[in-house]
Every structure is written in structure tokens, then in C-alpha cells.
Amino acid sequence: MTQTLEHEPTAVEAPPAPPRRRFGRLAVRAGSILAALVVWELLTAFDVDLWLHFDRLPTPVEVARDLGYQLGTAVYYQDLLDSLRRIVTGFALAAVLGIALGTAIARSRGTSDVVQPLLEVVRPIPAIAVVPIAILLFPTNEQGIVFITFLAAFFPVVVSTRHAVRALPVVWEDAIRTMGGSRRRVLWNVVLPGALPGVFGGLSVGMGVSWICVISAEMISGEFGVGYRTWQAYTVVDYPGVIVGMLTIGLLGWVTSAAVELLGRRATRWLPRGENS
Amino acid sequence: MSLRIENLVVHYGQRTVLSGLDLAVADAEILAVTGPSGCGKSTLLRALAGLLPASSGRVVSGGTPVTGTSAERALVFQDDGLLPWRSVRRNVELPLAIRRVPRARRRAEAESWLTQVGLSGYEDHLPRELSGGMRQRVQLARTLAGSPRVILADEPFGALDAQTRTAMQRLLVEVWRKRPTTVVFVTHDVDEALFLADRVAVLTRDGRLAKVVESSRPRTAGPAVAAERAEVLDGLVAA
């Protein structure tokens, strides 16, 4: 999420710099990335072995060549779509069920008493530690992977929704009720829209954790996907392939996080800070 | 619609906020409620609205005891009562939607109410884009759109500057004249109370009725009658 923020420097860094200085800063930023690439190239091209074994890593040029090659193969896109499908399914399930459960816990003492203790017991277990159970429990590996992805995003969403709903000012609810509005009306017109800013915090975190878990689950259970392909590349000593996999994972993570962020901004445009951000 | 408060006791946690209050409000009367801070003025309004249950005693609204909230008794808040994610128009449309006014008619009705409070042209603004006084106008329009039979207002003009406050008081009187509704409003401002209300109820710190002062010429311009002003102030100091 930090990446997307950095892409909008003008909103934060007022007053706008004069064009020449802005160009200068852009040059510095580009130069910093370029310098890192050059250092990487030098370390790997000269097989530097200073405690860290740079001699085993591929050079950026090798990685670029491999990326170019992989972009021309169908299997690259197949893996990409596999991972994307898993993340979207798991995340969407987590968003819907997490918001529903978080709201129910915050609004009803009964639900809170029944569900809260269970959640508190299960929550400290990282979703990735549930992989063996998921593989045993679900008929197919595919479903297990989606379940892990779901579980990863589920808890951040539940917790943030619960807090956001509890923190809502009472006046809004009082206003609807003294207009004769029902509990349903309060839920749809006050609780859900009012909690959205907080909920999106949980969704952003959830998306990040989901990626960690989907990639790990793919590496472990071997059902294709970017995570599987990356680990596969490592086992067959195709190190440029590993880096291409890493970059692909990073790109996917960035795009999906940016999508959540964008959606969040659209949905919470009414917030005081929404004007220029 | 008339309101009757009979020996009302309300607890807030362990604390007794209202301890045996008796008061009647006639149909289409404007009653001001004042008293020292923390004397339970807001609690009284919330109990009248049906948001707070009575520990003992009861509130009777138009002959039926109050057991919960109803569209008949609308609550107006000091500030921030509007839903910030809804445009001005959509805020005013909300009570219409709750009343099941057909969607096609809501828009026209909301716009007509907004025109009455002098806000036509601001329909698509968000509440945060308006001044405090304009937001209170929207709240007034929203309340009226619900066509309640009792309006309960909790320091509705308390957060406004003197000039805006006077304009809002006049607007309220104008709207009330067109459609006389029972109004109970809480205020700290003695002059506002005597200008707007037929009677001013003064509460004591421990949530009892200190006295009720009648305003001899409510809703007429000019300063409040000095004797009545002194009487309310005496009540406040003694409370």
C-alpha cells in the first residue's frame, strides 16, 4: 500500500516544486533504482563471494532475458491466472463473511459471546500453519489453497470491522431510529457505510496476508500457480526463473493492493481527508 | 400531538439522571427545557424519543405510552446528525424512504423541503462542504420531511454564531407557523428559550423540575420581558 501512496507525491508534498526541481527529483529517484541494478549486475557478474554468495545469483540481464522468454509462453499466464483466481476467490469470501461476522459480533452480545472465544483461540495461529489441516480436510488441493487464502484475510477483516462498528457515533443510529427506521435500515444505512473506512483498513491488511499465504500454499501443495512455479524453478536450479517468479508475485501483490486501495478511496470519498487524496 | 411525562425516573448506569419528573406539553406547544449542565436535559429528550427506557414512571404520547422510537417523534441534534456520506438531498430523502414514499416522488419532496429552508442549489453537496448553519438547515429539512408530530431538539442552534442562530430561530418560527407541531427543545440560552417557547421548564441538577415560566409574548420580535428573564435565571441559579 505504501507503493500506491508514493505514486501521488503532489497531494502530500505541497507546495508544488518548480518544474526544474521536480525533474531533478525524478532523476534522483530513477537514478537510485538504476544504481541498485548496476550494483546487482556488478556483484553477480564478477561472482563476488564476500560471506554472501553473490556468485550463485543470476545477473539482472539474465533475469531480464528469462522474463522476456517467459512472457512468450502460455504457462506463465496460466500460472498467473491460477494464483489470481485463488486470491480473488479467497479474498472475496473473506471480505463478505468477515464483514458480516465482524458486524454481528459488534452489534449482538449473543453472537459475540458465542463466536468471540472461538475466534480468540484460532486467531493467533498463522493461516500458513493450517496448511496441513487444509490439505487433509478438503477434497482437492485447490480448495485447500483457497481456504488458506480466505483464512488469512478473514481475521484482519473481522477485527477491523468489529472495531469500526463499535466506534460509530450513536447520533447517526439515533437519527434513523427516531425517523422510524428499523434495525435493518440502521444496518444498511448507518452501520455498514459508516464502518467502511475502518473495514478497508482490514481489507488492505488482509490482501497483503492473503498473498503471503497463497504463495506459500502453492509452494507446499504443488498445484501450479506463481508460487509453485517459483519453487519449481529453485528445485531445478533455474535461478533467473526464481527471480522472475518473485517479481511476478510482487507485481500481482501491488496491483491487487492498489485495487483495494482505489476501491476504498472511492467508497470513503465523504471523509474530510477525501478531498485531495 | 400532546406529551405527558408522568413521574419519570431514568437511570444511566448507576446514576439517577431524572428522578420523578412530571410535565405536560400541549399539542402544538413549543416547550423549552433548560437547566445546569448535566441535569439530564438530553436524557429527557432521549426518553421522550423512546431511545432510553424509563426505570419507572412513563411518557405518554398522544394517549399511548412510549415504549420505543417512532417516526412521530423526531430528534434533532446539535451537530453531526447528518450522515456524512450522503449528499444533502439523499439525507433529506432518507425519512421519505423510511416512510415508503415512492422513489419518484422522494426527489421532488426533498427538493421542496430544501427550498423551504433556503438551500436550493446545494442538493448535491456533502454535509462537510457546508457551514454549521447550513448543516442545521439540512437537519431541519430532513426532520420536517419525516412529518413528525413531535420535534425534539437537543440544543439545535447551540453550535452556531449569534447571527446564524437568530436566522435559524426565525426560520423555525416560520416553519412552525405553517404547520404547528409540538416542539420540545433544550437550550442554554434564556433569550432563545423565551423567544421561541410558550413555556420554559427549568430542571434542577438532580433531575427534578425547578419551575415552569410562561413566556408572555412568544415568537414576537424584541427583547424578552425582563421579569420572565429574571425568573428563569433565578431558577437556573437556584438549581
Description:
With 277 residues, chain A is mainly alpha-helical. Chain A contains twelve helices and two strands; from the N terminus they run αααββααααααααα. In chain A, helix 5 crosses helix 11 and helix 8 packs antiparallel against helix 10. Chain A starts with a helix and ends in a 10-residue tail after the last helix. By secondary structure, chain B is an alpha/beta fold. Chain B is built from seven helices and ten strands. In chain B, the strands form two sheets. Chain B has a six-stranded mixed beta sheet, with helices on both faces. In chain B, a hairpin with a 2-residue loop joins strand 1 and strand 2. The relative contact order of chain B is 0.18.
Global mean pLDDT of chain B = 88
**Fraction of helical residues of chain A:** over 70%
Distance between the termini of chain B: 30 Å
Shape by Cα distribution of chain B: globular
The main pleated sheet of chain B reads as: 6 strands, mixed
Q: Give the topology string of chain B: H per helix, E per strand.
A: EEEHEEEHHHEHEHEEH
Distance between the termini of chain A: 14 Å
InterPro entries (chain B): AAA+_ATPase, ABC_transporter-like_ATP-bd, ABC_transporter-like_CS, ABC_transporter_ATP-bind, P-loop_NTPase
GO molecular function (chain B): ATP binding
Keywords (chain B): ATP-binding, Nucleotide-binding, Transport
Domain ABC transporter (chain B): 3-230
Structure characteristics:
heterodimer, A: 277 residues, mainly alpha, two-stranded antiparallel ribbon, 1% strand, globular, disordered N terminus, B: 239 residues, alpha/beta, six-stranded mixed sheet, four-stranded antiparallel sheet, 7 helices, 36% helix, 25% strand
Topology:
The complex is a heterodimer of chains A (277) and B (239).
Chain A: H1 2-6, H2 9-12, H3 19-45, E1 49-50, E2 52-53, H4 60-71, H5 74-107, H6 109-122, H7 131-137, H8 141-166, H9 170-177, H10 183-221, H11 226-235, H12 239-267
Antiparallel strand pairs in A: 1-2
Chain B: E1 3-12, E2 15-25, E3 30-34, H1 41-49, E4 56-61, E5 64-65, E6 73-76, H2 88-98, H3 103-116, H4 132-145, E7 150-154, H5 162-178, E8 182-186, H6 190-196, E9 199-203, E10 209-214, H7 226-238
Helix pairs in contact in B: 2-3, 2-4, 3-4, 4-5
Keywords (chain B): ATP-binding, Nucleotide-binding, Transport
InterPro entries (chain B): AAA+_ATPase, ABC_transporter-like_ATP-bd, ABC_transporter-like_CS, ABC_transporter_ATP-bind, P-loop_NTPase
Pfam family, one (chain B): ABC_tran
